[in-house]
């Protein structure tokens, strides 16, 4: 039984290990004769039943008896003793004679069980589970004064005690918040008399339903004072565990923003999360069933309390007492009582600043969704009127815009949205600014021209929307808004505004894959509009952007001229930010020309000027290329330092998910992978609201960590789920495809790894032939082909050997071609490219059989610039080659093992340990893995290794290849084995070894 079990639904009991451990510990004490009780509290849907079901499975697996009873919500009087009657019902029909006798010996139990049950001879058939109809038609006891209550209580305690003598008993009582007075009395009696029985009682209840005046609250306070009773509070999941829970529920990887929305809306409640996911509502209305469950909580409130709750739902945020008084229209005393009631019933909570809010956000959604249209509009209007009458402060315009919009006061809403947009931009919140400008665009045509704010038109709104979409991680929408802006141009539009519009489209398209031609055409349109004009800020910006595009399409001389002209124009008109942008291009041009020192001077100057000019986008762009300059030279420490500072600056300015904010974050993650500074899962999460393609960019790199850590099931989901985003960004197929090849390789699926490598090579060649990244892909494919050929050799399949070698040679040729025709950013192949080329040649040496140890050593040295994981893999292969040549491999194995252990690279670690074991090399901190011997075992470790492989049908040659010894040495070992065992043939030696227990665990 796992500590975190999977229930029948297949849904894991995520993050409940602590609570489960406490319940199991309580059961373990009961097994020892230390009776006890656990009171399990938690909100509805938090997972109490799931946890108790898991406990029941554990108890039954341990040979215990589980008796389960549930209270039901019956308003008028309830059903006395219902959970005990349901729990004890199986005892009355038990086939165990001792249990049946224990029941018959206590006639008082007849008043709990269905009529006649337990007082007749046991029937052969097992009693079926109790149905809801059984509960409703169960014979009810007479009034308590006629029941002989003490006799009944003693009978329940007695039968549980007697049954527990033969095996431990766990009594599960669910939903005690609905328990009637008789049930509460019996529970109190039972728990107060727990002593040395092998009995555990677990009762669950909803914390939010047990308000201050609830009859169960007093009993709970008494019970927790008993030494045998402990309380376990089941809280909602934290954010990290909630994400794991949603991921476990989903059939495939989900967009980060969808997961984040479900996590936020459910607030860690598993049932709510399941409902939201099952209906895939995302940000739409609540599922009807869930809304009904939530709204049922309000039925017990008074009319005034329900009114206050409805008013609060419209606010969509915490509200102070004074605001509720103004909007609700209730008097002070009535409002106080209504709020007190709502708080006591756990519908509302009071925050530290004295404001009121819903205990759960989904309850607010349910209440708001239940409002009538007129009621909703009037309440929004009341809030808007109150906001307009109050002094302005932070968020004032956003609130005014929201309530005015919802109450159809569009004349007030439109300017408020635009003021809120400006405020959001100043606060570094481009996502919020985008939301405000989109709302403004949605109502623009509905507002009469005379009522529209001055200085704005639809063209400006589209331009702003494109900019904010681009800086908040939605490049596709940024391009869509920019295209709409160009379509809104008219002959009356000034050339200056038109040039800005076309430049915005060019910049937006640059963030998308496959749109370079369209983007270049757009910047050319912008340049045509201003090239014959006097220097201006717009002309300087167009020149700066144009310089960047000319560099991308491999026109360095034209790019240099355009950048220098941009600097001149910008200095003439004081456009410092445009000047900084041009300086960035001058830096990248110097890098491409092979002058890194000059490049870094330009880039640092661009950084300073952009910061002084208040241009954070340009500043982080300069930081990215400065980091890339060091990255190209294999100076990872310096590159990571610049990338980290760039990420921090992007976060500080709200540009984390802008075009270069994304590039910085992606490069930071990749650098951490290379240098062996592997982060936790938090590094894989994209921001709220970013596009699925942007999230895929980060998840693609994260998949490399997942594979390297051996989490292959998770990797498989990522690789398959992200395939749809291959066309969005070239880096996505490179990382995801890489992860897919490596995952197949580590799992021993070498044919699949070769297929994936050839598939990725073919895809890349169709998109952009001769990419330098093809060297890495080809290398992984060649290694897989070499392993596939080795597998075929072991089985003597020469046809398969030839096919594998041919595939490897095709991939080898492709990798060599990429190293020649690929275009390094700095003009020459850098340390990373040279290292992968060395590894490609080393992997190719393995195609014909034993690898070349010298080539693997050279590849390992080539990765010495800082790529520690790749270096460790080369050391592992170097050790294989050394052992095949009958040379010492201890140093290489120890180096690879140390890195694998430090990083938690499980597949590499296990491969190194397996190789070390077969070669009889002891690794630091690893116990020798030799099989245990019996007293009469005559075989040495090496003889046993040989015999185990013979038992698997290996030939002497194959055994020698696997153990790195000669075929002749294998024959010598076999001769000794047969002599020791008295066998005349190989097969006879294997049979004798099995008979004597010497081969109980053969290895493949």
UniProtKB/TrEMBL annotation:
Stretches for region Disordered: 116-141
Entry-linked SMART domains: HTH_LUXR
Keyword set, alphabetical order: ATP-binding, Nucleotide-binding
GO BP terms: regulation of DNA-templated transcription
Gene3D superfamilies: P-loop containing nucleotide triphosphate hydrolases, Tetratricopeptide repeat domain, Winged helix-like DNA-binding domain superfamily/Winged helix DNA-binding domain
GO molecular function, one term: DNA binding
Gene Ontology, cellular component aspect: cytoplasm
All residue ranges annotated as the HTH luxR-type domain in the record: 932-997
SUPFAM superfamilies the UniProt entry points to: C-terminal effector domain of the bipartite response regulators, P-loop containing nucleoside triphosphate hydrolases, TPR-like
Any matching Pfam family: AAA_16
UniProt entry tagged with the keyword ATP-binding: yes
Biased composition (Basic and acidic residues): 120-141
Name used for this protein in its record: AAA family ATPase
């Amino acid at each position: 039984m796992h500590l975190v079990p999977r229930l029948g639904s297949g849904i894991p009991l995520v993050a409940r290990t602590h609570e489960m451990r406490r319940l199991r510990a309580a059961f373990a004490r009961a097994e020892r004769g230390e009776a006890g009780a656990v009171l399990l509290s938690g909100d509805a849907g938090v997972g109490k039943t799931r946890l108790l079901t898991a406990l029941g499975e554990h108890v039954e697996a341990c040979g215990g008896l589980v008796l389960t009873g549930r209270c039901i919500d019956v308003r008028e009087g309830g059903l006395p003793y219902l959970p005990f009657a349901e729990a004890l019902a199986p005892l009355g029909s038990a086939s165990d004679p001792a249990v049946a006798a224990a029941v018959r010996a206590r006639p008082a139990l007849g008043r709990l069980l269905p009529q006649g049950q337990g007082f007749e001879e046991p029937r052969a058939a097992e009693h079926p589970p109790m149905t809801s109809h059984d509960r409703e038609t169960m014979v009810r006891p007479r009034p308590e004064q006629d029941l002989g209550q003490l006799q009944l209580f003693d009978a329940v305690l007695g039968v549980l005690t007697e049954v527990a003598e033969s095996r431990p008993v766990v009594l599960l009582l669910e939903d005690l918040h609905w328990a009637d007075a008789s049930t509460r009395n019996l529970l109190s009696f039972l728990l107060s008399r727990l002593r040395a029985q092998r009995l555990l009682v677990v009762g669950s209840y909803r914390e939010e339903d047990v308000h201050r005046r609830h009859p169960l609250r007093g009993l709970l306070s008494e019970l927790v004072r008993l030494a045998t009773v402990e309380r376990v509070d089941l809280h909602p999941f934290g954010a990290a565990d909630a994400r794991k829970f949603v991921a476990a529920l989903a059939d495939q990887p989900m967009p980060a923003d969808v997961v984040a929305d479900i996590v936020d809306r459910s607030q860690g409640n598993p049932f709510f999360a399941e409902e939201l996911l099952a209906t895939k509502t995302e940000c739409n209305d609540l599922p009807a069933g869930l809304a009904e469950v939530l709204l049922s909580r309000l039925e017990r409130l008074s009319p005034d309390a329900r009114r206050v709750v409805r008013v609060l739902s419209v606010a969509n945020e915490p509200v102070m007492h004074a605001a509720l008084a103004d909007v609700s229209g209730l008097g002070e005393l009535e409002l106080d009582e209504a709020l007190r009631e709502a708080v006591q019933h756990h519908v509302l909570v009071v925050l530290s600043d004295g404001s009121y809010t819903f205990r759960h956000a989904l309850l607010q959604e349910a209440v708001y969704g239940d409002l009538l249209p007129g009621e909703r509009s009037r309440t929004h209007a009341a809030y808007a009127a109150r906001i307009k009458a109050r002094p302005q402060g932070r968020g004032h315009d956003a609130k005014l815009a929201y309530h005015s919009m919802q109450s159809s006061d569009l004349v007030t809403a439109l300017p408020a949205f635009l003021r809120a947009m400006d405020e959001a931009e100043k606060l570094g919140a481009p996502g919020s600014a985008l939301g405000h400008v989109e709302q403004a665009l949605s109502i623009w045509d509905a507002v009469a021209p005379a009522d529209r704010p001055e200085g704005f038109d639809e063209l400006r709104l589209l331009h702003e929307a494109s900019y904010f979409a681009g800086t908040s991680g939605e490049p596709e929408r940024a391009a869509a808004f920019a295209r709409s802006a160009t379509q809104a141009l008219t002959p009356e539009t000034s050339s200056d505004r038109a040039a800005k519009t076309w430049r915005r489209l060019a910049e937006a398209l640059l963030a998308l894959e496959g749109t370079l031609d369209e983007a270049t055409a757009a910047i050319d349109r912008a340049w045509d509009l201003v090239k014959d004009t006097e220097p201006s800020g717009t002309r300087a910006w167009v020149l700066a952007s144009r310089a960047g595009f000319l560099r991308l399409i491999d026109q360095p001389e034209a790019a240099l001229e355009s950048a220098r002209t941009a600097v001149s124009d910008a200095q003439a008109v004081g456009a410092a930010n445009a000047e900084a942008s041009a300086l960035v291009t001058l830096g990248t041009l110097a890098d491409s020309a092979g002058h890194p020192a000059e490049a870094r001077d330009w880039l640092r100057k661009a950084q300073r000027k952009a910061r002084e000019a208040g241009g954070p986008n340009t500043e982080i762009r300069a930081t990215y290329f400065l980091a890339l300059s060091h990255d190209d030279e294999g100076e990872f420490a310096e590159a990571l330092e610049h990338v980290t500072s760039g990420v921090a600056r992007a976060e500080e300015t709200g540009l984390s998910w802008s075009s270069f904010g994304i590039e910085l974050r992606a490069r930071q993650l990749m650098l951490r992978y290379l240098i062996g500074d592997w982060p936790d899962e938090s590094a894989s999460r994209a921001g709220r609201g970013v596009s699925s393609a942007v999230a895929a960019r980060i998840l693609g790199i994260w998949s490399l960590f997942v594979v390297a850590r051996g989490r292959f099931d998770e990797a498989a989901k990522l690789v398959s789920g992200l395939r749809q985003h291959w066309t969005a960004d070239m880096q996505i197929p490179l990382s995801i495809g890489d992860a897919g090849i490596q995952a197949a390789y580590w799992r021993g699926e070498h044919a699949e790894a070769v297929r994936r490598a050839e598939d990725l090579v073919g895809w890349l060649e169709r998109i952009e032939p001769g990419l330098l990244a093809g060297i890495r892909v080809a290398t992984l494919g060649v290694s897989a082909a070499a392993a596939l050929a080795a597998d075929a050799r072991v089985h003597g399949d020469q046809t398969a050997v030839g096919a594998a070698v041919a595939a490897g040679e095709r991939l080898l040729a492709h990798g060599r071609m990429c190293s020649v025709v690929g275009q390094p950013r700095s003009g020459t192949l850098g340390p990373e490219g040279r290292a992968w080329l060395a590894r490609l040649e080393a992997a190719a040496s393995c195609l014909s059989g034993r690898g070349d140890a010298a080539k693997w050593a050279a590849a390992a040295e080539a990765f010495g610039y800082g790529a520690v994981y790749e270096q460790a893999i080369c050391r592992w292969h170097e050790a294989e080659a050394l052992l095949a040549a009958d040379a010492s491999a201890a140093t290489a194995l120890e180096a690879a093992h140390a890195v694998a252990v430090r990083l938690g690279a499980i597949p590499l670690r296990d491969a190194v340990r397996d190789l070390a074991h077969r070669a009889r090399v002891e690794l630091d901190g690893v116990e020798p893995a030799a099989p245990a011997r019996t007293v009469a075992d005559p075989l040495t470790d090496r003889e046993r290794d040989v015999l185990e492989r013979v038992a698997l049908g290996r030939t002497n040659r194959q055994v020698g290849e696997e153990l790195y010894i000669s075929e002749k040495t294998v024959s010598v070992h076999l001769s000794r084995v047969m002599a020791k065992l008295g066998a005349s043939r190989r097969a006879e030696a294997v049979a004798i070894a099995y008979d004597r227990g010497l081969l109980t665990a053969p290895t493949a």
